[in-house]
Amino acid sequence: MLSGFLRRGVQRARFTFTQQLGEDLLSGAAATLHTQIRMMDDIALDAAKKTAARTAVDQWVTEDTKILGIGSGSTVVYAVQRIAERVWKEGELTDLICVPSSYQARHLILDYNLNLGDLDRNPNIDVAIDGADEVDRHMVLIKGGGGCLLQEKVVASCAKHFIVVADYTKNSIRLGEQWCRGVPIEVAPMAYVPIKLHIEALFGGEASLRMAKVKAGPIVTDNGNFLLDWKFIANREYDWDEVNRAITLIPGVLETGLFVNMAHKCYYGMANGSVKVQNK
Ligand SMILES: O=C[C@H](O)[C@H](O)[C@H](O)COP(=O)(O)O
Question: Is the ipTM of this complex over 0.90?
Answer without folding.
Answer: yes
